[in-house]
Design a protein that fits this description.
Gcp-like_dom, alpha/beta, 10 strands, 29% helix, tRNA threonylcarbamoyladenosine biosynthesis protein TsaB, ATPase_NBD, five-stranded mixed beta sheet, T6A_TsaB
Length: 229
């Protein structure tokens, strides 16, 4: 049975919301690098109104748990927590990298995918995914890493995310079988629904107070100004 799930993501420059209600999917997204806090709740209200439902009628709320922009990830987690507290609903955390890989499968039938988000500081958030029963599943682990330190591969696979735009020449030389999908730059809430459905069916949910972001980069080292060491 398909669960009724609202999904939202603000982890990158893309702000997106999607609703799976009685098997149908509604979605709304917009490129808005600096005003997620002003857009995300109106997007939620609009999509619920479009479907004619309330938060209380849903089974769960899914959110992009990262990796991505520190501020963006925090906005998404906090928004999902607030909605879940108010409606007394469980939360499902979804990887932003997995969502991009899922979009590659939906839009281009890609069954193998290298997902990379530009993490700044000459690094990328990286994950490799393989299709298993309709769901793009993580191989090994997600990581934040300098592109030149990746192991490389000649396997034919889709390449998605802003990391492939920022470090295209370097990554393409290491992953000679990669085909860049320029249409998949950012995660989308619509493509979080597949994993959210699976997780919900397995009972892999958390209460609002236990929702946590995933940054991958736990420590950031800043160069101090001369005389302030």
């Amino acid at each position: 049975m398909t669960a009724n799930i609202l999904a939202l993501d603000t982890s990158t420059e893309n702000c997106s919301v999607a609703l799976q209600w009685q098997g149908e999917i509604l979605s709304h997204e917009q490129y808005s690098p600096r005003d997620h806090t002003q857009r995300i709740l109106p997007f939620v209200e609009q999509i619920l109104a479009q479907a004619g439902v309330s938060l209380q009628q849903l089974d769960a709320i899914a959110f992009g748990r990262g990796p991505g922009s520190f501020t963006g990830v925090r906005i998404g987690v906090a928004t999902a927590q607030g909605l879940a507290f108010g409606a007394d609903k469980p939360l499902v955390a979804v990887s932003t990298l997995q969502a991009m890989a899922q979009q590659a499968y939906r839009s281009a039938q890609a069954e193998h995918c290298f997902a990379a988000i530009d993490a700044r500081m000459s690094e990328v958030y990286w994950g490799e995914y393989q299709l298993q029963e309709g769901l793009m599943c993580l191989l090994e682990q997600e990581q934040v890493i300098k592109p030149e330190l990746l192991s490389g591969s000649a396997q034919v696979a889709a390449a998605v995310g802003t990391g492939w735009q920022s470090y295209q020449q370097l990554l393409a030389s290491q992953y000679s079988g990669a085909k860049i999908l320029e249409s998949v730059l950012y995660p989308s809430a619509r493509d979080m629904l597949n994993y959210a459905q699976y997780a919900f069916s397995q009972g892999d949910v958390v209460a609002a107070e236990h929702a946590e972001p995933v940054y991958l980069r736990d420590k950031v080292t800043w160069k101090k100004l001369p005389g302030r060491e």
